[in-house]
Amino acid sequence: MAGEWLKIEHHVAEKPEVLQIATNCEMEPDLVVGRLVKVWAWASRNCPAGGRTHISAFAHLNTIGGHQRFAESMVEAGWLKIKDTDMTFVNFDRHISQSAKERALNAANKAKHRRPDDVPNMSRSNRDKKGTREEKNNKAVAYGNAPVLSL
Fold it and tell me: Which of 12, 59, 89, 146 could bridge 51 with an S-S bond, Cβ 3.0-4.6 Å?
């Protein structure tokens, strides 16, 4: 399915939030990134309401994260918010939601089509043989056909 992927930044392992979670949970940053991917994948499947779910899932995030303080560390890092009986993934709409995935795909497609290797090679014979705009303007001035400006 098209929706079964996540948008991950290249430098996620170096983010201060990841390093904070790694320190809190006594885990290597690369392991934290892997666990975060699992947590975010779970959120993608189970939090359709703008990244919100019931607080009862908090303990489950610890299981997915592989540490008893994983979800709490996400809260401390600012990637998870708890309010009353709701648990919300911060910036869900920007990174995990279906619309975020569609925006990322559109951006990737546009970037692909803008690559120089996609530009067709045009020889001089396929272009206007009368010269550049400057050359045409110079000829017009030389022959008295220059545009007249009135003030």
Answer: 89
The size of the chain, in residues, is: 151
Q: Compare 75 and 135 and report the one with higher pLDDT.
A: 75
Q: Which of 14-18, 96-100, 122-126 has the highest mean pLDDT?
A: 14-18
Residue 113 CB burial class (10 angstroms; 0-12, 13-18, ≥19)? exposed
CATH number of 12-90: 1.10.10
The answer to whether the predicted template modeling score (pTM) of the entire model surpasses 0.90 is no
CA 26 to chain centre: 29
Dihedral, CA atoms, 77, 80, 82, 85, nearest 10 degrees?
-160
